[in-house]
Amino acid sequence: MGAKGVIFMVMLNLQIPTPSRWFLQVDGNLNEILIDHAHYEKKAAGAAMNLLFAYVDSTKISRAMAEIVNEELEHFQMVLDLLAHRGIQFRKLSPSHYGPRLHSIVF
Ligand SMILES: [Fe+2]
């Protein structure tokens, strides 16, 4: 692992040794990865919001989901700030084939 690999290990708080190939892929696609990360933070907030509406009769679940919505939106804003700091425009990304393929295997 090179110096960039060590930087990624620290920056991403990776807990186990990670193949250099992965670092090269991250390094070559960092803008898209950060944009993708922002979308996932937003998606996590949306999933918690859906559960908030689905379990309206449970105050315990409603409070827990509201906390998650706020936390994930805060993460979303943090990633948007990081994108802006790096001069990266937040935008739509083409959907990957990974999700539907995984879903077809699991379900
Ligand atoms: Fe998050």
Poorly predicted ranges: none
Topology, number of strands: 0
Strand content: under 5%
Give the C-level CATH assignment: Mainly Alpha
Integer average pLDDT: 90
Helix content: over 70%
The ligands bound in this entry are: fe (ii) ion
Q: Count of DSSP helices?
A: 5
| Structural class computed from helices and strand pairing | mainly alpha
Features:
Ferritin; 74% helix; globular; binds fe (ii) ion
Descriptive overview:
- The mean pLDDT is 90.
- The chain is mostly helical and 107 residues long.
- Helix 3 (30-54) runs antiparallel to helix 4 (59-85).
- It is globular and about 55 Å long.
- The protein has helices spanning 3-11, 20-28, 30-54, 59-85, 98-106.
- 74% of the residues lie in helices and 0% in strands.
- It has one domain: Ferritin, core subunit, four-helix bundle (Ferritin, Up-down Bundle).
- The protein has five helices and no strands.
